[in-house]
Amino acid sequence: MAVAVGKEGVEREHPLFKEGMAHLQAGEWEQAIRCFEALARELPESRVVQRMLAEARFKADIDAKTRVRPRRWTIPWRAILIRTLIVLMIGVLVVQGARLISHQIAPIWARMQQERWRARLLAEGNAYLEAGDLDAAQARYETLLAEVPDHLGALQGLARVKEQRELQDLYQRAIALQEEGRNEKALNLLTEISIRSPGYRDVSLRITQVKRQKELDRLFAEAEAAYQEGSVLDAIAKYEQIRGLDLDYRSETITDRLFELYLGLGRESLERASPTIQDVSQALDYFTKALALRPRDTDAALEKQLAQSYLEGQHLFESGYWDGAVAQLRAVYDLRPDYLGGAVADLLYEAYIRSGDQHRAAGDLYFAYEQYRRAAELPMEDTVLARGRMFEVVPLLTPTATPTATPTATPIPTPTPIVPTPTPRPLATYHGRILFWSDKEDQPGLWVMDPDGSNRQYLGDSGDLRRQFRELYEREQFSPDGRYRAFVKDTTPSAQIFIALPRHEVYGDLPPRQLTRLTGLSYDPVWSPDGSRIAFVSQENGSDDIWVIYADGSEPKALTRNTWEWDKHPSWSPDSTRIVFWSNRTGVKQIYVMDAEGRNVRNISNTEWDEYDPIWVK
Q1: Structural domain of 349
Q2: Would you say the pTM of this structure is higher than 0.90?
């Protein structure tokens, strides 16, 4: 076995073996066979040589059996013939089809295209007609009739176009007549349109408008006739009926008429020979209606205020609240002494007497005397009763003690007379005067003075006075009828003034209405006695200034404008024409008065000490 392995290694190194392997790898089978046969003769027992020789002979044999034949071209005459026949048949069919189309199908197709075109013209004409484009619709119908003169659809379309043009013309004429106010003719044309074409545009609505306009015109003519004839109630009824139908109809004229009539009726009710409470109540209703038409009219506001105050005073008088009656009646008397033909003076005189009697019975002699004195000052024909009461009270105001002798010879000094301590006069009775607080060193506390700064009087500094003062100031925040209240409420970015509304009989408590909408803090609201405006303090301009605003929230206006100074605590005069307030503009707090527009500002304190927080007693 060892010899065999060694021979195999010799074989592979033999030159013939290497040459044969080279021919074998090159595909030169015959050369490879010769090399391996020669080597086999030298090494007859070598299995490697025999295997390689067999492989070379095998590949040579395979190569010898594989032959490549040359390509032969064959023409498919049968297929060519069949295809040629098919092409010829198709050509014949095409020619026959073309002849068929040109002689039979083409005319039919042309007719179909023409019918489609005509149908399109008719459809477009109808669509334009429905859209109201009469010119475009007419053009389509005329084009169609040019091709088919008796086309029924086109003829009907043109008839409809004509009808629509006539309706359009009638409609434009009706609108013009309506705008000119010629409602009768406009109504006739609109009615004709509605009959010829129900639902045409907004004809139904315009017919309703014209009929309502005719009714308004009729009512207005009747109201004006009644107005000219002096039939006041009939005129008012007609004007109010018009407002109920259309608030914008001749609104300015009707508002002027109603205001004049309501104000006139109210004054007429008060100017009767002997006006009753019912007459005053009716007058108040008329004044309220007049003021609702012109909320800022000062005449109507004054008349309403007077009637309200008188009725309240009468009610308090009949209820036995004499001081309250005096306050209300005095407010009327100061503004109009001859109110109700002097009836207010008569009732005020009686109220003073009864108030004095009441305080006299309670031991308040000084206040009783004051009431009698005020009654005696009224310009009455007979003030004997008031003067008699004064005469009766005077001795009681200054009683003198009787000296007492003793048995000894030494006389006893006469005792000092004892003067009864007077009961403080209610602050509400200082009507038309200004209450204020003063820091006067020897008499600090509450004072009262006239609006020009004269007749200064020290009242004291008791807890009761402070309570009364606080109540008076709280009343300043209410509207004259007591139904609304101005108050301060925190909002973003700063507190503002709101109006508390009266309780609704159906909806209950209503949310408050915001009055001011400024960026600065607003406070100290006070309502004017005529009810039209509210004064308040605002920091809108960086300082505390006095502002006014109408009760409906319109036209807020700064009456004062400061840099570092403070103007605070406004209060209206009873006639709503002036405002009192305090300011530190001189470095000391002082009381100032100005008119309701912020003019004619003057200092009525003129002191070296602080005076502040004034209230003008109503």
Answers
A1: 291-396
A2: no
